[in-house]
Amino acid sequence: MQLSPSLSEMETEPCCEEQKGGALDPTEPEEAEGISELAESNSVNESPCGPAKEDLELCGEDPAETESQAVESRGTDKKSSPDCRQEGEKGECKVEKKLKKTNSWKMVRFQDPSLEEDVVERDSSAEILFPEYAVEEWTSTPFEELFMAEDWENITEDRLLRKKVLQSGDIHVPHATWDQEVTVKMQGVVEDRTVVEKDCKLVFVIGEGDVIQALEECVMSMQKGEIALLLTDSQYAYGLLGREPDIPAWAPLLYQLQLLDIRDKPDPLTLPIADRIRIGNQKRERGNVHFQREEYGLAARAYCVALEVLTTRSKDGNDVGMKEEEEEVREYRVKCLNNLAAAQLKLEQFDEALHTSRDVLTLQPDNVKALFRAGKLLSDKGVYDEAMEVLKQALKLEPTTKVRSCG
């Protein structure tokens, strides 16, 4: 008899929390009875299941302020905490503003983060980024005609990703390749020519999922300095889910973009610890966006990239940084690992999820979330004695958390 239901039945509803031990939300009322029975009897006849919800570690706000706040479902709805709602029309709260920036697909930048506000302001302006190229294709031609036009180049064989060069670039500079960092200037519109994306200095690493696939594929076909129109079908952009409120489901997009720079991405082992933490958290937040859109493979990849960055190891293999920095890195690694385990569960990578949960417990032995996950996965594998011990430990640490009984 299993201690828990099948993993496919587990539903993940991410919420913002910053609890050190990764404790589950104590407001889940029906969750502890099964574990309480387990603690009182060493029998597996009345088997508790794992936590009813797999919570992502999303943002660094006070749990008391964010307990009722849900990050956008599938990259859309944003709800504010009670404190935020009281502000009414006076302005957005900091939590909502942070989540909105994440949802807008602003890219990971290696510059001083103080520049980000300027970028957002600049992006939201009505300025046309390529006024000298207000060509008919950009301003009025139906997308259907552009998909069939003979003077456009196919980036993919299916003719669903196409470009038209408006200004040639430097032919002496090699094309950008996978795992390189690029800077682009870009502006994107839907078919009625409403601007839905704009950035004067967009920085991303090809292959790390920081931008839609269309942009990654296109920049690898461009020369440095090249200006081009890019037409993409929804399958290379925002697909079935779209991106509320401005990009509908299945919407093709048209971009003007210029490839400004190509370079090797920085080795994280050469960066200051503060920069590693900032970049690692940006990657983690990108993974959270993918998770909310149910793009679990992309989410797992983003969390793995974040874990590569979130380290105190230096180029020579020695630890660097102060004790406070090392503790901060450890806490953020725990968050990434917990989120990675949640993504692996959605991908039905159960052995990998168990391994990841054990990595969490190596860093933080009293992490209740990881204990519940590990206990459930062990029970599904039939390792009941170890599963029971792990779940008892979770109950001891978080006695108010309730786990449903499973028949």
Notable features of this structure?
407 residues; alpha+beta; Chitinase A, domain 3; Serine Threonine Protein Phosphatase 5, Tetratricopeptide repeat; 6-stranded antiparallel beta sheet; 37% helix; disordered C terminus; TPR repeat; isomerase; peptidyl-prolyl cis-trans isomerase activity
How would you describe the overall organization of this protein?
The chain has 407 residues and is of the alpha+beta class. Among the domains are: 145 residues, Roll (Chitinase A, domain 3); 139 residues, Serine Threonine Protein Phosphatase 5, Tetratricopeptide repeat, CATH 1.25.40. 37% of the residues lie in helices and 13% in strands. The chain contains 14 helices and eight strands. The termini are close together.
Short characterization:
With 407 residues, the protein is an alpha+beta fold. Helix content is 37%, strand content 13%. A hairpin with a 5-residue loop joins strand 4 (180-189) and strand 5 (195-205).
